[in-house]
Amino acid sequence: MFGSLVIVFPTAHEGGTLQLRHRGQEWTFDSASELSGLPTPSIGYIAFFSDVEHEVAPVISGHRVTLT
Fold first, then answer.
1. How far is it, in rounded angstroms, from Cα 31 to Cα 33?
2. Is residue 16 part of a domain?
3. DSSP assignment of 12-49, as one string?
4. Is 5 exposed, middle or buried, given 0-12, 13-18 or 19+ CB atoms closer than 10 A?
5. Is residue 48 situated within a structural domain?
6. What is the per-residue pLDDT for 34?
7. For the chain, how many structural domains are there in total?
8. pTM for the predicted model, two decimal places
9. Domain residue limits at 23
10. Highest taxon of the source (predicted)?
């Protein structure tokens, strides 16, 4: 596998952040907060190489709908 592309659909949810780690660096993609402040429904996306460790935090409320 070369990498991953995660597409996040505009559904109301809380939690479910995507945490990425690679070579001592860490990033967090919080689709709930990124998409909630937009004036119109929009999709979110993130791509990363296969050697990047990733973990999805639990969804606290609502539904996080993705296509990977």
1. 6
2. yes
3. -EEE--EEEEETTEEEEE-HHHHHHT-SS---EEEEEE
4. exposed
5. yes
6. 85
7. 1
8. 0.84
9. 3-58
10. Eukaryota
List 51's β-bridge partners, or say none: none
Would 63 be classed as within a structural domain? no
Order of strands across the sheet with 25-29? 25-29, 18-22, 53-56
How far does the chain reach from its first CA to its final CA, in angstroms?
13
| Structure-model confidence comparison of residues 51 and 33, the more confident one | 51
pLDDT at residue 4 greater than cutoff 90: yes
Encode pLDDT of 18-43 as tens digits: 999 999 999 999 998 888 888 888 99
Residue 13 in any domain: the answer is: yes
pLDDT average, residue stretch 31-59? 92
Angle at 41 between CA 18 and CA 17, to 5 degrees: 10
